[in-house]
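To illustrate the input format used throughout this study, we show a single complete record. The first block contains the structure-token representation of the backbone; no residue identities are included at this stage. The design step must infer an amino acid for every position from geometry alone.
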């Protein structure tokens, strides 16, 4: 077996994603050298799926490195965590300064920040790349979100932009930012995915339990929505799921246990939002909805103990066609809030971690190949292209007008669902955020007074009420009862 450096790209990890990505890269004219810890898998892959393609095998990390042209580009598609660090340590003795290690797994962004620093100190380059689109995306065009060492981008760009999905002929891959930015953006993508899925599930719940529609009627509603503003991958597959019948001719979806799983990226997004003080409420509710679903046996018991609203003839009076139209608008408005929150979070993370994020580029990366791909992401790209310093997506004229148009329907659907006793945490929190965000003054003044009353946690005066007795921009404590002291506790401003 020749050790001549003939390969353009190396990939470690031949599970489903790894194999499909290798084949995708080879199809675009690049020679790939592949390695797997269980080396028999390499031989099976070469003899079957990769037969006749520009793919060569390696039976060790050392052999893989010898067969790569410089600068070496080695992608890891292995389980996130210790396995990534272990492979990095195996690779280091066999590479040279300027070579590139790419982590294409679902790594937590702090690990990518650490790995970028560690490898750059040794003279190597690191890329933490979010990969979205699943098995089919890996094979025929994923959404790729690379970040890390900027010097690596010119070397991986031709390959990444060749193999990724395309939207309006533009590659769904661009440089995201420094250190852990790529995996952070992928994490937020997954968090938004949680929110989108929860909103769709709530719409389904309203149609099923509130309007008493059958699965085919629900499928028709999703099919109709997919022709307009809600055109997206998740709406499309929901239509197909609702139409799918089991062997006995009944809807398969109704036989699936209502306990949702999760791999943690939505939770990571919610935790990051709390850490950075950004109200990403919809993703948080989507995570909690999954945890509530996991309490199946407890919910079954609760259903026999706890009562809801008494059903009346009111529901019979609802015009179902009109209600479905309003429900579609409510879903659209809620989705816009979710994306606005996601971009708010990325904006704050960019400040915190000193990343130069390209919001228009991120929207384009999500236009195709990934799970949250949808038509209106093109409008998000336009919004950030038109105003690179856009403070909030809801301030863009297109999205402001879209929410204005949907607002009446949004409020009507939520109020009706509440009267029906149907849980809609994602719809509700989207509207609550919108109403909170548009209020110049919130009741947090009372909250601050309470905190100062019981814990001397201080407060500040509104600018219009400052004078000699009411200092401006200073934390003050008041002796509310006449029995307390004048010493304040530490201050905290969210």
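Output of the design step:
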């Amino acid at each position: 077996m020749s050790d001549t450096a003939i390969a353009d790209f190396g990939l470690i990890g031949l599970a489903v994603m790894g194999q499909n990505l290798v084949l995708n890269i080879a199809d675009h004219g690049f020679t790939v050298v592949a390695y797997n810890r269980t080396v028999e898998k390499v031989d099976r892959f070469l003899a079957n799926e990769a037969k006749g393609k520009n793919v060569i095998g390696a039976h060790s990390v050392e052999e893989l490195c010898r067969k790569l042209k410089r600068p070496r580009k080695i992608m890891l598609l292995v389980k996130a965590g210790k396995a990534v660090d272990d492979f990095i340590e195996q690779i280091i003795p066999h590479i040279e300064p300027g070579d590139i290690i790419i982590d294409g797994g679902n790594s937590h962004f702090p690990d990518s920040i650490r790995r970028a620093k560690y490898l750059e100190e040794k003279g190597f380059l690191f890329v933490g790349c979010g990969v979205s689109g699943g098995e089919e995306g890996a094979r025929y065009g994923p959404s790729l979100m690379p970040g890390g060492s900027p010097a690596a981008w010119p070397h991986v760009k031709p390959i990444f932009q060749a193999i990724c999905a395309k939207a309006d002929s533009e590659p769904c891959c661009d440089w995201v930012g420094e250190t852990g930015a790529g995996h952070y953006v992928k994490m937020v993508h997954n968090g938004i995915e949680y929110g989108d899925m929860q909103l769709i599930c709530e719409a389904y719940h309203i149609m099923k339990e509130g309007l008493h529609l059958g699965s085919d009627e629900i499928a028709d509603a999703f099919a109709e929505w997919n022709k307009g503003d809600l055109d997206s991958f998740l709406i499309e597959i929901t239509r197909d799921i609702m139409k799918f019948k089991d062997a006995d001719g009944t809807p398969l979806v109704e036989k699936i246990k209502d306990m949702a799983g999760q791999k943690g990226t939505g939770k990571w997004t919610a935790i990051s939002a709390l850490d950075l003080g950004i109200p990403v409420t919809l993703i948080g509710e989507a995570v909690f909805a999954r945890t509530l679903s996991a309490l199946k046996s407890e919910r079954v018991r609760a259903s026999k103990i706890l009562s809801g609203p008494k059903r009346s003839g009111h529901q019979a009076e609802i015009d179902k066609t009109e209600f479905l139209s309003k429900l579609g608008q409510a879903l659209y408005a809620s989705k816009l809030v979710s994306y606005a929150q996601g971009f708010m979070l990325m904006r704050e993370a960019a400040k915190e971690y000193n990343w130069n994020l390209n919001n228009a580029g991120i929207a384009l990366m999500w236009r195709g190949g990934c799970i949250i791909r949808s038509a209106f992401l093109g409008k998000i790209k336009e919004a950030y292209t038109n105003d690179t310093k856009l403070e909030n997506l809801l301030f863009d004229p297109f999205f402001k007008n879209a929410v204005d148009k949907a607002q009446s329907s949004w409020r009507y659907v939520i109020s009706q669902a509440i009267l029906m006793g149907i849980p809609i945490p994602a719809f509700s929190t989207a509207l609550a955020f919108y109403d909170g965000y548009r209020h110049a003054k919130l009741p947090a003044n009372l909250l601050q007074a309470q905190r100062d009353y019981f814990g001397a946690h201080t407060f500040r005066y509104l600018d219009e009420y400052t004078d000699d007795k009411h200092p401006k921009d200073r934390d003050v404590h008041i002796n509310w009862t006449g029995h307390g002291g004048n010493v304040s506790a530490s201050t905290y401003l969210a």
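Structural context for interpreting the output: The mean pLDDT is 94. The longest helix spans residues 320-353.
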